[in-house]
Backbone:
């Protein structure tokens, strides 16, 4: 599982293929690999200068309470690795809100129904962030564009604006004229 996660982060395996591989793997192995990947990312962020409260606040603001709780758990695991640690850091980690049930089994049984694993995978990949995700996101962006082009072959793009069809443009223009919008 660790190699699957690393390949997704490196961009050598698509996000969808990685998710497929993790979905069919034994839950205990996936949980362990994702927890390990999260711990590596959190360790790197803390070593890079992030503080526990700061990281938790950002994840809570950009993510959701479950993601913030997972960060709180990871921060506590990080602190447990050290005997002597700045008391302010330990206080920050201790003051983070306690996690209210993390793993797939405690998420209302969502784990193998797609939503829970998908969220967990997305969260873990996001935690590795920075430049590592650019190839993955770029590949996903290209696949989305290809899917949109297949679904809407007559769509025309021009400098960031879109005209889906001449017929649509004309009907929209007629509606604007009728409403006296110029």
Residues:
């Amino acid at each position: 599982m660790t190699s699957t996660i690393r390949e997704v982060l490196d961009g050598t395996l698509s996000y969808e293929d990685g998710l497929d591989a993790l979905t069919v793997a034994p839950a205990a192995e996936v949980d362990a690999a994702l927890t390990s990947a999260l711990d590596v990312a959190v360790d790197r962020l803390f070593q890079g200068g992030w503080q526990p409260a700061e990281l938790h606040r950002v994840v809570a603001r950009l993510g959701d309470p479950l993601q913030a709780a997972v960060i709180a758990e990871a921060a506590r695991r990080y602190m447990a690795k050290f005997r002597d640690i700045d008391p302010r850091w330990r206080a920050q980690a201790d003051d983070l809100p306690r996690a209210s049930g993390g793993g797939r089994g405690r998420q209302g049984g969502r784990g193998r129904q797609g939503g829970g694993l998908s969220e967990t995978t997305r969260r873990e990949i996001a935690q590795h962030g920075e430049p590592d995700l650019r190839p993955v996101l770029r590949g996903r962006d290209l696949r989305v564009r290809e899917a949109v082009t297949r679904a809407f072959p007559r769509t025309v793009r021009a400098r960031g604006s879109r005209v889906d069809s001449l017929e649509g443009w004309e009907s929209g223009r007629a509606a604007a004229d009728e409403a006296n919008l110029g």
